[in-house]
Amino acid sequence: MEQEVDSVDTEPLTVGVVRESVAGERRVALVPKLVERLVKRGLKVIVESGAGEGASLADEAFEEAGAQVGNAWDARIVLKVAAPTEEEAARLLPGTVLIGFLKPLSDVDAIAALDKAGITAFAVESIPRITRAQAMDALSSQSSVAGYRAVLLAAQKLPRFFPMLTTAAGTVPPAKVLVLGVGVAGLQALATAKRLGAQPTGYDVRPEVADQVRSVGAQWLDLGIEAVGEGGYARELTEEEREEQKRRLTEATTKFDVVITTALVPGRRAPKLVTAEAVRGMPAGGVVVDLAGETGGNCELTLPGLEVVHHDVTICSPFNLAAEMPGHASELYARNLTELVELLVDAEGRLAIDFTDEIVAGACVAGREKGTA
């Protein structure tokens, strides 16, 4: 087993938590309760001043947990949420271990620059989706937050009630909600819609998720098209399958008040599932919440990052919904990163990167070994 062991044994290994600079990013990579956990492992945690402000975590809370407030960019391990900007990357010292959402499939130039600078970078979105890595799965934890927020956004925009109401003035039927793409975000959206009293229905090209849809109290929309892929994702449909899916989905979509889309194919543009014709056929006042906007969107009428109205249907394509709930989103993300950091550190609190480990090798996107030993 080959490992990279920290050559400095007399000084504790430093973990830096930096302040996020991307507009709208309110999450922080570590929270006080997880600082305590790392400190007990013999690590020294340095937090950049103001790093937790967006998540309502003051510097004093980190200090009480055992962290120091100071220059976190010089730490041996630097934790982030969003990928570093070019200016931020220049602040990293050669030999630094960087962990965060680094977009390795879409921002290859930035990854190459990190590699050239001697940074060992671990992209949390590249962590293998295996049982042993579930506690480190930041994609899942943050997608769960996004799915929850998507339903709240839809309920806010819909000019009707979500639940059925029986009043002296008559009975109000429940809103009908369709969720396209039943991964973690989709299942959370279905469960949340159910809790709010709507009638949720889920659709995915992977038939094995039908039982998961039913397990949260939702109905399953069966279009008769399957596309089972690797790693828990759907494979890309053939041209013929896409056309037939489009036709059947267009017909089905017109029966729903709310459509929430979460369908993604790693490394590719998001598939177009909601046609302009489908939007035109939806009930007046309907809502589409497109969570795939950063890769082009699942709706033909989506304008990524914006809210538009077509045919009296509101189409929202928000970026980074998880950042709108920074308290719990940060807490979940911090747990993911803490688990990964502990995998990279030995019992004595020294850096010990084992590139023969499936998780370590899969998540490493830059560095001398680049995930291989």
UniProtKB/TrEMBL annotation:
Where do the Alanine dehydrogenase/pyridine nucleotide transhydrogenase NAD(H)-binding domain residues begin and end?
155-317
- Which part of the chain is the Alanine dehydrogenase/pyridine nucleotide transhydrogenase N-terminal domain? 16-146
Please write the reaction equations for the catalytic activity of this protein.
Answer: NAD(+) + NADPH + H(+)(in) = NADH + NADP(+) + H(+)(out)
Q: Does the keyword NAD apply?
A: yes
User: What keywords were assigned to this record?
Assistant: NAD, NADP, Nucleotide-binding, Oxidoreductase, Translocase
What InterPro entries does this protein's entry cite? AlaDH/PNT_N (IPR007886), AlaDH/PNT_NAD(H)-bd (IPR007698), NAD(P)-bd_dom_sf (IPR036291)
Pfam families given in the database record: AlaDh_PNT_C (PF01262), AlaDh_PNT_N (PF05222)
Single Gene Ontology MF annotation: oxidoreductase activity
> What domain of life?
Bacteria
Instruction: Give its E.C. classification number.
Output: 7.1.1.1
Which PANTHER family has this protein been placed in?
Answer: NAD(P) TRANSHYDROGENASE, PROTON-TRANSLOCATING NAD(P)(+) TRANSHYDROGENASE
NCBIfam families this protein is in? PRK09424.1 (NF006942)
- What protein name does the entry list? proton-translocating NAD(P)(+) transhydrogenase
The lineage is: Bacteria, Bacillati, Actinomycetota, Actinomycetes, Pseudonocardiales
